[in-house]
Structure prediction request, 208 residues.
Amino acid sequence: MQALRKYGDPEYWNKRYSTASGTFDWYFEYHPFIAQILDGFNSKEISILDVGCGNSKFSEILVSKGYKKITCIDYSKAFFEHLFQEFHERLPSVHYMYMDARMLSFPEASFDVVFDKGLLDSALTGELSYVNAKQIIKSCLRVLKPFGKYIIISHSDMETRKEHFLDPSFDCELRCESIVVTDNDCHEGEERLPDLTFYAYIFSKHLH
Prediction:
């Protein structure tokens, strides 16, 4: 656990992004399961928020699929000092903003989809992890529109995460799905990596 604590430390991310270039994705770049959820809205005009975006390729993939209202936030100053210009030039339609996911400054009910791939996992390795995790979830649910989807991708199963997610105050429907990521990029003669399993937690917000 000690080795993982660096992921909950903002300084780790500032150091990482101060020398990074190009894109890098934790867990996976994209997955048919994510596409299925987005396709369920039957519109390319839905508003999507990616929290803890870093230098992920996710926004680029969304743009390539025709989505037009994409906002990405991150709390690393180094990302905006060293990588923002590169991403902004390549993806001028995407709004990149410096913001803390625990205290999102958007108005209530601003987004159809809120997407978190690894942010909550990182928060749960740092100091005040339980407090920070609850603040992130409540903040993301606040900016989610009625009938919207808040998607959290995690390396941990429900047994491990239930104390964070099964909170009556969230007042949302929650389901968990396993996502199997296969090594589809191996070439003939190369050793195939084992499949990996991640977990998608989908909060569905209903109109009251």
